[in-house]
Amino acid sequence: MPDPHDLAKVYYSAARSEIVQRLALRESVLLAAVATFGVLAGWVVGEKGPGPWLLSLFPLLSLAFTLVLFRHNWIINDQSDYLNTTLSEFLGLGPAELGHAVPMPLHWDAALRRGRRALKLRWILLAELGGAWFLLWVPALVALYLTIRERQAGMWAMILVDIIALVLALTPFAVELHRLVLKWKTDV
Fold this sequence. Notes:
By secondary structure, the chain is an all-alpha fold.
């Protein structure tokens, strides 16, 4: 039977590797969203563009990018919680031949969650959430405004779909903000 300490180190390495991969994927989603919104906006305002109806796709794209981004975010949070709760007690165990517990050094993000640094981490997480909201939701709002301003015949159904997509895209932000607030209350 494997030593729990050694097995915990293997699980820790695997979880950290997945977190790092998902962090990169999350940033890629944000970059893809910005690039997509920029290309579509450039196409709309271009000389031979398809017209302002294309702007009505922004809220739907915002919803899609938001769901992908927060899926990565939630898995990152679940993996971090797994590391900090489930594995932490096993990582503090020492090898059996030493006869006493040898604590493992804290990873940088776990160290940030302790003491005075916890407030700094809270602001970093809040800024990250606000930045994602700005990059994914604001272009959709601007596009919706421009679509409503055009008031072309037959666009009202698309405008209604866009409003529903914007509300749905706001939901993960609200859920994540609520999760952060609850976590901060339990940390205090």
